Amino acid sequence: MAEHVRESQVSQSWDHGSDTKDSPQQHKNGHLGHSTEDSYSPTSVIFFKEALAAAGNVNIELERRETPLPASLQHELEIQQPKKRNPKDPIAIERLNLMNMAKLSIKGLIESALNLGRTLDSDYAPLQQFFVVMEHCLKHGLKTKKTFLGQNKSFWGPLELVEKLTPEAGEITASVKDLPGLKTPIGRGRAWLRLALMQKKLSDYMKTLINRKDLLSEFYEPNALMMEEEGAVIAGLLVGLNVIDANLCMKGEDLDSQVNVIDFSMYLKDGGHSSKSTEGDGQITAILDQKNYVEELNRHLSASVNNLQAKVDAMEKSNTKLTEELAVANNRIITLQEEVERVKEESSYLLESNRKASKADGSADGHVLGEARKQLKEETQLRLDVERELEVQIGMKQEMELSMKMLEKDICEKQDALVALRQQLDDLRTLNHELSHKSQSSEGALKQKTEIVSRLEEKTNQMAGTIKQLEQSSCGSNPDHVRPRGIVT
User: Fold this and answer.
1) Which of 76, 110, 123, 421 has the fewest CB atoms in 10 Å of its CB?
2) What rounded mean pLDDT belongs to the chain?
3) If you ran DSSP here, which 8-state letter would residue 64 be given?
4) pTM over 0.70
């Protein structure tokens, strides 16, 4: 009977490892106290079961999960469910174990960070364990590369591919390479994971990397976690970490020689308080979902505002260019008008000269008059050409003025849309602030309910002890008397 109770408690603590807020050995940072005997580093089902057996002397089947996952994780699992595999395949069991550990680590990290209510640092134990679990996932199924220094097996190579697939990741890769204390590829990989988490881009980068299995095949075996559907599930679960704010200082931290050990004592918690109310968790989950939606909408609106601002800048540049072209056309029109006036004056002067010459000597200057008439025709033709060019320039000026008016109207409409989008962005920020206050109030109410439940349990234990004492005293004083069925209070 005692072994059955212990086994049920261990299975409940496995499925609800982060639901229990208070326990006798729980520290202030949200995890249980542990010693070196409680830490293990398994990557296969054999080591995993030995670790659990050492903690509770029970055998647990890790592939079966009797209690459903929380609502925040079920949505991600419904997107991509792993296909059925051979249950006796040890590689498949390793992948499933690592995926389950990633689920528990991410869930525990989110809940403990929300309860803590502040920015996480490098010394936060659940955050350290999350990086250890992620490192195990990235190392699963890595191909061993032979170099002149020996065999090399590091997950830094796959992470460098993200820079080629997503240009935004180039900043992280450059920052990692500039860190002075990193000497090994594994240290650079650990620094890359921490920087991606601080940027809240870890999920996006992992999804981008998993979608290019043709590139990953160079680094991983075909049955590795990153090459199977478990990797896509873990990448989807990483979206929940966008609600966490972390400030990790890596200068002076020895990432090359850190111990890569999973601490299972953080997830094998006591299941005695499993009867506590989950209403507060549901409210917090709903608020977090709303917050995620608002942040995503805020991100899309910011991108739209940036695009509109870029279009407005381009239109302003085009407007400036059209204005310059219009000024050049006006100068050209003025020049043509001056030339027309000059041609008119020359024509008048020639006509007057010809008229005077014809009066003075009509017969003697007949030849000169013919030449003058011919020159007059040429000047007249030149004048007509200039007038036609002037008309063309005037038409171009009118078209440019019309296009300027249409461009100004379009700019006004874009500015109105930009103002409306900024107003929506301010409203969304206000809504995000209100949701944060609601989340804090819900956490306070949940703590009060937890304290009330603890006091009720203590009172129940006291009443049970009192009833036993009354029964014992009643049996001692009246041994022949019939024992009553119960006590009415």
Assistant:
1) 123
2) 76
3) -
4) no
- Ranges 159-163, 256-260, 273-277: which has the least confidence: 273-277
Read off the pLDDT of residues 358-409 as tens digits, 9 standing for 90 and up: 676 656 566 777 788 888 999 999 999 999 999 999 999 999 999 999 999 9
The answer to whether 20 touches 269, Cβ cutoff 8 Å, is: yes
pLDDT of 37: 34
Question: In whole angstroms, how far apart are CA 23 and each of 1, 20, 272, 281, 444?
Answer: 24, 7, 10, 18, 18
Residue 417's alpha-carbon distances to 106, 307, 309, 412, 474, in angstroms, are 40, 12, 10, 9, 84
Q: Is 228 within 8 Å of 81 (Cβ atoms)?
A: no
The encoded tokens of residue 276 equal: 């506590």
- Which positions ≥6 away from 106 have C-beta within 8 Å? 73, 130, 237, 238, 240, 241
Contact 39, 263 (CB under 8 A): yes
For residue 53, which of 91, 96, 7 has the smallest C-alpha distance? 7
Q: Are 231 and 238 in contact (CB under 8 A)?
A: no
> What is the Cα–Cα distance from 189 to 206, expressed in whole angstroms?
13
Cα 261 to chain center, whole Å? 28
Banded model confidence at residue 269, pLDDT cuts 50, 70, 90: low
Positive or negative torsion for Cα 266, 267, 272, 274: positive
Local structure of 184: helix, strand or coil: coil
Q: Strands 262-263 and 145-147: what pairing?
A: unpaired
- Distance, in Å, from the CA atom of 101 to the CA atom of 110, rounded to the nearest integer, reads 14
For residues 331 and 328, what is the distance between their CA atoms, to the nearest angstrom? Answer: 5
Report yes or no: 32 and 23 within 8 Å, Cβ to Cβ. yes
Distance CA 396, CA 170 (A): 49
Residue 257 DSSP one-character state: S
Do residues 256 and 182 make contact, with C-beta atoms less than 8 angstroms apart? yes
Q: Which two tokens stand for residue 194?
A: 């921490």
Among candidate residues 293, 268, 290, the one with its CA nearest the CA of residue 108: 268
Measured distance CA(427)–CA(425) in Å, rounded: 5
CB 34 within 8 A of CB 265: yes
Mention every residue, 6+ apart, whose C-beta is less than 8 A from residue 241: 106, 109, 110, 197, 200, 202, 203
- Cα angle 375, 379, 384 (rounded to 5 degrees) comes to 145
The Cα 349–Cα 278 span in angstroms is 106
Contact indicator for 105, 133 with CB cutoff of 8 Å? yes
Task: Copy the structure tokens of residue 440.
Answer: 């804090």
Element (H, E) at 350: helix 279-360
